[in-house]
Write a structure and sequence with these properties.
With about 70 residues, the protein is mainly alpha-helical. Helices cover about 80% and strands about 0% of the residues. This is Ribbon-helix-helix protein, CopG family.
Amino acid sequence: MALNLRLSPEEDQQLTALAETAGTSKQKVISRLIRQEWEISEAKRANERDFWEIMDARSELMERLKNA
């Protein structure tokens, strides 16, 4: 899929520097950053889901602790 990306001159310089440092293309840097952000987002969702599953499974204990 093709995509036009509008960057400020400063953002373009930063992207260029990232690509040069990594020895890769700007497109690959952007793809990597999207993938990293996706993985972070998915991990946060999984953590939140797990937290609420634990809270639900331990609701009686949590209520007793609240009233202690």
